[in-house]
Amino acid sequence: MKLEKVIDFLSFILILVALYFAFIYAPVEKVMGPVQKIFYFHVASAWIAFFAFFVTFICSIFLLATNRYIFDDIASSSAGIGIIFCSIVLITGPIWAKSFWGTWWTWDPRLTTTLILWFIYVGYLMLRKFIDEEDKRAKFAAAVGIVGFIDVPIVFLSIRWWRTIHPNVLQKGGGGLHPDMITSLIVSVIAFTFLYLMLMNKNLKIKALERKILTIENE
Amino acid sequence: MKKYFKTIYHIFEKDILLELKSKEVINSMLIFSLLTVIVFSFIFEPGAEYKIDLVGGILWMAIVFAGILGLNKSMMSEINGGNLNALLLAPVDKSAIFFGKVLSNFIFLIFMEIVTIPVFTIFYNVNIFKHTLLSIPVFILGTYGFSVLGTLFSIISVKSRTREVMLPILLLPLMIPIILAAIQSINIFIKGDTISDADRWIRLIAAFDLIFTFVVYAIFDYIVEE
Question: Chain A contact for B179, CB < 8 A?
Answer without folding.
Answer: no
